[in-house]
Amino acid sequence: MRTHVKALVVGGGAVGASIAYHLARAGWDCTLLERDELTSGSTWHAAGLLPLFNMGYATSHIHDYSVKFYKQLEAETGLNAGFYVVGNLRMAQTRARMDEYMLYASTAETVGIPYEWMTPAQIKERWPLVRTEDLEGAIYHPTDGYINPADVTQAMAKGARQHGAEVMRRVQVDGYHWTGSAWIVSCTRMVERGGNLVPSEDSFEITAEHVVTATGNHAQRTARLLGIKIPAIPVEHQYIVTEPDPALRDYRAAGNPEHPVLRDADAKWYVREERGGWILGPYERNAPARFLYDVPESFRADLFPLDLERIEEEYMSMIHRLPSSETVGLKDDYNGPICYTPDGNPLVGPAPGLRNMWLAEGFSFGITAAGGTGYYLAQMMTEGEAEIDMASLDPKRYGDWMTTEYAARKNEEAYEHVYILHHPDEERAACRPLRTAPSYDRMKARGAQFGQVNGWERPNYFGPLDAPDSFDHDAQLPPRRLVAICGR
Ligand SMILES: Cc1cc2nc3c(=O)[nH]c(=O)nc-3n(C[C@H](O)[C@H](O)[C@H](O)COP(=O)(O)OP(=O)(O)OC[C@H]3O[C@@H](n4cnc5c(N)ncnc54)[C@H](O)[C@@H]3O)c2cc1C
Description:
Blueprint: E1 4-10, H1 14-25, E2 30-34, H2 57-77, E3 88-92, H3 95-111, E4 116-118, H4 120-126, E5 137-141, H5 149-162, E6 166-169, E7 171-178, E8 183-193, E9 196-213, H6 219-226, E10 233-242, H7 246-253, E11 261-264, E12 269-274, E13 277-282, H8 312-321, E14 330-340, E15 347-350, E16 357-361, H9 366-383, H10 404-416, H11 440-445, E17 448-453, E18 456-462, H12 471-475, H13 479-487
Parallel strand pairs: 1-2, 1-9, 2-6, 3-11, 9-16
Antiparallel strand pairs: 3-5, 4-5, 7-8, 8-9, 10-13, 10-14, 11-12, 12-13, 15-16, 17-18
Helix pairs in contact: 1-5, 1-9, 2-3, 2-5, 2-9
The structure holds flavin-adenine dinucleotide.
The site of flavin-adenine dinucleotide has 40 residues, from helix 1, strand 2, strand 7, strand 10 and strand 14.
C-alpha cells in the first residue's frame, strides 16, 4: 500500500475510476479509494444511456470525449464495456421543441457532434412501431447509444491499474488535513456487520499532494469533512423494464436493427430496448430529494421502492408512442438516488478556498460524463488548465450563501426540468427570492424582472408594470413562438 502519492482519488464510481485512469495515464502516481465495492454507489443501477444531446458547451465536449473514449477501451484493457451504438432519436411534438433542438444543433456543430434531422414520415419508415402522426420531427444522433455502467467502470479501473494506479476497496476516507504542502488523509478499513458496512479498528493515513473527491451521494459528508458547501444532493429517479413485447420481437426477428434510444422530450421520458422488451425512464414531477445530510449505513447498493403512481402519466404516454407496449407486463423496476445540483451541471474543478483539493461531484449523467470529466479534470490538474472552457462547471458558482434546503429544492427542480423546454439564460423559480437587496421591493414595483446571481435577486431588465408572472418565461421563448405571441 502506498502511503505517499501525488494524487488520491476518493470514490470508485464511474467518475472516480475515470479520473484515476486519466491521472495515471498522464504519468501521475495515483491511488483510488472506495469505501465499499467499485460501482456500488449510483453507478451500478444506471440505465447506461450516453446522450450526446446537450445545451452546454463544456458538457457537450465532455460527453463527446466519453463516447469516443469508451469505444476504444476494450482494445486497451481487454474488457468489453458493452457499448451498443444504436443511435439516439429525440422526438418533438411541437414546433417550439424543434426550435429548441435547432438551438442545440448549433452547439453540436461547434463541438463536431454529428446529427441528422428527421421528418415523422422518415421515422415511421425506419421504426414502424413508433406512432408518429402527432410528431413535428426529430433530431437523430447516429453515434451514441448505451453502455453497461458497471463494465465500463471496471474497464477504466483496469486501465488505471495498467497505467500504474493503485485501486483500494473497502477503505473509507474520514478526514482531510492540509499541512501547507500536502493533504494528510485519514482512512479507515470498512467491514461488513449484519449486512451493513461499518468502520473497523484499522485506520491509517495517506499523504497526497492533490486530492480529488468523486463521492456521489456521499457529497454532503465530504462537504462536512472539508468544511465547505457542496450543493450535490440526490433525487429519486426510476426506470421500469417491461416483459418482452411480441411486436418488437417480430420486428427484430425480421432482421431489423435495434431501435435507437427513443426520447419523447414533450412526454418527459427515454425508452430503449431491453431483451425483447422496453426500458422506460421518466423525468416526472415530484421526485423527492434524498440523503440531505448523510447516506444511512444500511443503504449500500440499494434501491427505493417503486412509485408507479408518480410515473403514471409518462407510462401512459409511452403506450401512446409505442402502442404495442400496451399489453406487455412489468418485469423489473429501479428507483435509485441520482445526484443533482441546482443548475443540473456537475461540480468539476478546484474546491473553493482549498489548495490542491479538486471536486468531481453532483453528476446526474455520470456514466455519460465520466470519461470526459476524467480527461479534462486531469488536464486542469497536471497542466494547469483544460483545453476547453470549464467555467460553467466551476464549483465556485455556489458559495456559503447556499443552504441545504435551497440545494434540495433546486435539485428537485433541476430533475423535473430535464425535459422541460429550455430557453437560453432561463431563470428558474424554486427557492426564490433567497437574498434580496433593500431596494428589492421598490425595483419590483417599477417592473423589475429579476434573475439570480450568487443567490442574490438582481434585475435583468424592467418590463411592463402590470406584467403577469409568466412574462419573463414567455419573453424567452424561441423566436418562432415569440413572433406568434407578439403578432397576437
Ligand atoms: C435509475 C437511474 C438511472 C440512471 N441512468 C443513467 C444513464 O442512463 N446515463 C447516465 O449517464 N447516468 C445515469 N444515471 C446517473 C448515474 O448513475 C450517476 O450520475 C453516476 O453513477 C455517478 O457516478 P459517480 O462516480 O459520480 O458516483 P457513484 O457511482 O455514486 O460513486 C461514488 C462512490 O464514492 C464512494 N464513496 C463515497 N464517500 C466515500 C469516502 N468517504 N471514502 C471512500 N469512498 C467513498 C461511494 O461508496 C461510491 O461508490 C442514472 C441514475 C439512476 C438513479
